[in-house]
Amino acid sequence: MIDVEVPQGVGSPWHVHRDEDEWFFVHEGECEVYIGDAHLTLTAGGFAFGPKGVPHTFFGGPNGGKMLVWAEGGRFEGLLREIAEPAPEHVVPPPPDSPPDMELLLPIAEKGAYGILGPPGSTARALSQSTGPAQPFRNGERAT
């Protein structure tokens, strides 16, 4: 389980866990959570469940939020340990100024049984309206 501080508009990529369920519990502020076609606005005390095999994403609401996120099975922890950078101090760093290096991230995610389907803040509905059915995400662009 991790305690995530989610700044306004910042969040996870649209992704799917093939082997793990995931839970989200907002304990401060507001977060937008998309699970499949469902859109949930969670405020403090709000809970959502993302079953394995169902794509999902989350991002911070108008003033950001804090939530507990956990997945069963242990692969999620391994993924985070491999991609994370140690914090230089005990404060939330500023949002990144560029997208993640997908060439680096995709093989790590695949090894952990995760499929990255789109950039942070994207959803199945938005992706299908712009480019057709969801496909793997690579190099900041949808794969063709």
Outline the structure in words:
This protein has 144 residues and is an alpha+beta fold. It has one domain (2-142): Jelly Rolls (Sandwich), CATH 2.60.120. 19% of the residues lie in helices and 42% in strands. The protein contains three helices and nine strands; from the N terminus they run E-E-E-E-E-E-H-H-E-H-E-E. The chain has helices at 75-83, 102-111, 124-131; strands at 2-6, 13-17, 22-35, 38-43, 47-50, 56-71, 114-120, 137-138, 141-142. The strands form three sheets. Strands 1, 3, 4, 5 and 6 form a five-stranded antiparallel sheet that branches. It has a two-stranded antiparallel sheet with strand order 2-7. The radius of gyration is 14 Å and the shape is globular. The protein starts with a strand and ends with a strand. Mean pLDDT is 80; it is low at 130-144.
Describe, in short, the structure shown:
By secondary structure, the protein is an alpha+beta fold. It is 19% helix and 42% strand.
